[in-house]
């Protein structure tokens, strides 16, 4: 299939005659539902029996009527197991405005759904990309990312339920979906390469949905009119692929994700797995130096000056070698009943991994006997159950470590250096010189492939019990401070640290609700704990109170305000003041644990922590690799 034919699958023509392959029998049953952005008239809905994200000639289908309703007939087994597809074409009528949509996009929903919408499309994508999540957990994750209330349902008719926020979110997602399809078509038609010849609609559609999910913050905060305006502007849109090769790279990464399956944890953890990343922090000051600030061995003769990893010379620095980001290796391995982590730097002179770095990530956790315990997460007791699943138990927190693997055999090494979706590596806020260095690695890597047996590995942690955790190294000024030092504290209005949980912590907000001194941060949100002066004076007898969350949106500069409650709880004899976070205030959208924070007094300071609830699943974004893949990546670095 040539590239133009491939992308024309994205602009789908509705066929209004026929009903699948005509093989209906007395064993068929009827499945009905609605399809909506607003209710959509003339959308072709079908069962995606072959899981290719489009309606094929032999698949049972129906056409949505004047109220967005569809009906199709199929075998019960097909209805129970196949996801649903709705193909929208320019002529489809949207009852939100009684006009033709004027564009093409595809909607999906999980099997047996009675409602198909842009929101169910996102839900189906999350479920497929994260097979360890239940539908309920996937819904929670989407609600957090898009700022949807926890009480809302993603699988029911938001129009009939008068859920205007979900309806508006669906409208925005539909616009972005359409933009992705249009831009994909444009760049592949304009590009003469054949880079996408072997990719199909399923892969491209998956990349588009993933981009939609990654853009959740922008979609949530911007008005619909602004979403439409940005989607129509190449420089301000949600995709901004430069050419077909950009899209191809994202398709390759999506293919890797789609191929993952649960791996043999005992074998993988015993053998070890690894993650390579670039650390640019040592470059920040060096890149700011002028040529005269850099000592040159032998004057201006650079012959004896070791160029790190073949890094190119910079004209801006008078042809002096510019700073190369550190290449670091994190390795995790089980040994003698402990799960240990080590971190190494790549030595460009010796062409080997050396210089072990300190990577301790100690947390303070509340034990079941009412004590705070130091926990070294990189040195955790580990056992394996009969199925080979890894169980981590540090005496306070118990977790099940699940490993998902994807086969890298025959895939280019450049797949591991591909920007935001890389298997290994990170490239945040890098300079052009640093980007050039990594592009050099990627260019060389593109000519090589991983050997047989190379695996990419993604970790997931299932919480087996409820714990309260305080990050002990979350100090703003000095990360080397210990838990006993003045870090991770709440500040009272005069700027000093609160030394106890009393009225000093719960400030009088009513008189100055926008005063930044009377608040603290949770991610990008300002949090204000509200008490009257009378309540503050009698704080010890108060068990709950209001909380105000404020976000100044960086895109629109509009103020988003939500309210909540703080509640006093006594856990194992320790007073904790917990705050349930609104869905839109999650510190990390990919970390489903952070739904509740708490405050407590420890060592004379008020400490902030997070609640990890039993049953929560944390799926990490970073890919690790096994030994076979690491050897190939190390050889790549040694060859530069």
Radius of gyration (CA) equals 27 Å
Structural class: alpha+beta
Q: Main beta sheet, described?
A: 10 strands, antiparallel
Question: Mean of residue pLDDT?
Answer: 75
Number of helices: 13
Indicate the overall shape. Answer: globular
Low-confidence stretches: 1-19, 190-198, 284-322, 418-429, 474-485, 508-517, 587-592
| Helical fraction | 10-25%
Oligomeric state as shown? single chain
Question: What's the end-to-end separation, in Å?
Answer: 37 Å
- Range of strand content: 25-35%
Give the total of beta strands. Answer: 32
Q: How would you sum up this structure, described in words?
A:
The protein is α+β, with helices and mostly antiparallel strands and 640 residues long. The protein contains 13 helices and 32 strands. 38% of the residues are buried. The model is unreliable at 1-19, 190-198, 284-322, 418-429, 474-485, 508-517 and 587-592 (pLDDT under 50).
Summary keywords:
23% helix, 640 residues, 10-stranded antiparallel beta sheet
Question: Outline of this structure?
Answer:
It contains 13 helices and 32 strands. By secondary structure, the protein is of the alpha+beta class.
Write the topology of this structure:
Layout: H1 3-8, E1 28-35, E2 40-41, E3 44-47, E4 61-63, E5 69-75, H2 76-81, E6 84-88, E7 93-94, E8 99-100, E9 105-109, E10 115-116, H3 118-129, H4 135-146, H5 164-190, H6 201-214, H7 216-221, H8 224-231, H9 244-258, E11 261-262, H10 265-271, E12 273-279, E13 313-314, E14 320-321, E15 326-335, E16 338-347, E17 352-357, E18 362-366, E19 372-376, E20 379-384, E21 390-393, E22 398-407, H11 432-445, E23 455-463, E24 467-471, E25 520-522, E26 525-529, H12 533-537, E27 544-552, E28 559-571, E29 574-580, E30 596-602, E31 605-612, E32 617-625, H13 627-639
Parallel strand pairs: 1-10
Antiparallel strand pairs: 1-5, 2-7, 3-4, 3-6, 6-9, 7-8, 11-22, 12-15, 13-14, 15-16, 16-17, 16-20, 18-19, 18-24, 20-21, 21-22, 22-23, 23-32, 24-31, 25-26, 26-27, 27-28, 28-29, 29-30, 30-31
Helix pairs in contact: 3-4, 3-6, 5-6, 5-8, 6-9
